[in-house]
Amino acid sequence: MSTLKHVDANHLKPSCSQCNLRDICFSHGMDDDELRNLDVVVAQPKPLHKNDYLYRDGDKTVAIYAVRSGCIKTMMESANGDEQIVGFHFPGELLGVDGFVNDLHTCNAQALETSSVCEFPLEQLESLCVALPGMQKQMRRIMGKEVNNDHKLLLLLGKMTAEERLASFLLSMSCRMTERHWKEDKFNLSMPRQDIANYLGMAVETVSRLFAAFQNEKIIEVDRRSITILDMQRLRAIVGESE
Amino acid sequence: MSTLKHVDANHLKPSCSQCNLRDICFSHGMDDDELRNLDVVVAQPKPLHKNDYLYRDGDKTVAIYAVRSGCIKTMMESANGDEQIVGFHFPGELLGVDGFVNDLHTCNAQALETSSVCEFPLEQLESLCVALPGMQKQMRRIMGKEVNNDHKLLLLLGKMTAEERLASFLLSMSCRMTERHWKEDKFNLSMPRQDIANYLGMAVETVSRLFAAFQNEKIIEVDRRSITILDMQRLRAIVGESE
DNA sequence: CGCCGATTTGACTCAGATCAAGGTTTGTGG
DNA sequence: CCACAAACCTTGATCTGAGTCAAATCGGCG
Q1: Mean pLDDT, chain B, whole residue set
Q2: CATH topology for B32-155?
Q3: Is the pLDDT at A46 greater than 90, yes or no?
Q4: What is the pLDDT of residue B12?
Q5: Among A92, B179, B222, B224, which is most exposed with the fewest C-beta within 10 angstroms?
Q6: For residue A221, what are the contacts with CB-CB under 8 A and spacing of at least 6?
Q7: pLDDT tens-digit profile of A90-100?
Q8: CATH class of B161-238
Q9: Residue ranges of the domains in chain B?
Q10: Residues 124-153 of B with CB under 8 A from A
Q11: Residue of A nearest to B138 (CA)
Q12: Residues A8, A79: Cα–Cα separation, whole Å
């Protein structure tokens, strides 16, 4: 009898093939054979409490992680001590790709709320890539996604006004809700205003004022962390995705 | 007798093992066996003239490219038409990693001056990754580097003042000159002010004024595209790398 | 209830954008 | 080789989006 049936409830052996996030997570697009192989390597560490770090700048890179529940932010630290949040990671999204240069992480990854992750050990992924033809492409896809996200954020920080940035952020949130089959027009923000501001390269006060302005304009409804999008078209128009 | 000796001068079969950039390029850290294998897959397309595109947003991704000579910029295009330069690529530096999600590029890559590149076809790299154990790590390293660069730029755009940005840019240039065993304190910029401004998220006028200011302060000497760094310490102090 | 951190709001300020104009360099065709 | 146009770069004057500072309010939670 396998020991798997006796493990602690907090450390249930996860299974990608059984996971309801399998279509948007690491396993996206993988066939049954590949899924079975992935099931073998995936592990699930202890859940993280709010503010716990999954890894820190300088830690040895041993795995890629997928968020299973909760939300994890990744941030860069500068020479003079201030931080730039470079990503918020929701269930099904991957992190850990920073730190592939010298096998040392270059970001801090911190839980915004109680969160759990799945762990894909690099060493075992490496073997899988040799054994399974599609696995390499999968790894490329994952890293490519990180690059594309970063590029979008660069465009946002380099070229958009504060109003455009917040609208873009809300649309991105809404889009990710849709992917997860949650309501696209009503969701809770897992991060404080301060983190939104940091991520979008602006001051908290500006975020607050813009939420108020969008609410006045009947574009959204804000109640603390709860957001209801009333006029998706107008949001799209603000970021220039109209016509 | 090999046909290699008879090819057109513009299409010389390149060799990583013979290349003077081998230590900082794709081949960085590879052993002799790996180098020999890389020599087989690397190709060299026609040189690019100034303003030629190596690839465009939407093109099929078929290869990773290494700059051999010249300089290539990559840029993101936004919905409403403006562009953000996300990287300048110098000899030995790689590009093409955008576009690994759906095998379609998401950036434009354009030559700033007459440039040549080496081409590493993805399909052949994939085979190499199965055959050679170290090759996978190499691919990871390359993509990781792109991610790290992007993160640094995010920090710059999100948190730095115009002065800090330009100082940071100059230090980065100097650092890359050193890697290439060129003078660390005297070099030519291959890009116009407009591109520097775009890359750093500011107006051309601000770049121009800051160059003038740095020159007044005897930190650098500027003569059109030629930069001489007079006081490296002060540049470091500006970006906060001193304390 | 009372404290503390998160958020909002208002008033003021400023870094850097924009606008405008002039100078310089490069490339082109005659 | 020169004339002219088109880029490119600089400098000055002005304006403004968003930051900073200050203070009030809200919401949880022990």
Answers
A1: 92
A2: Jelly Rolls (2.60.120)
A3: no
A4: 66
A5: B224
A6: A215, A227, A228, A230
A7: 999 999 999 99
A8: mainly alpha
A9: 32-155, 161-238
A10: 126, 129-130, 136-137, 139-141, 143-148, 150-153
A11: A101
A12: 42
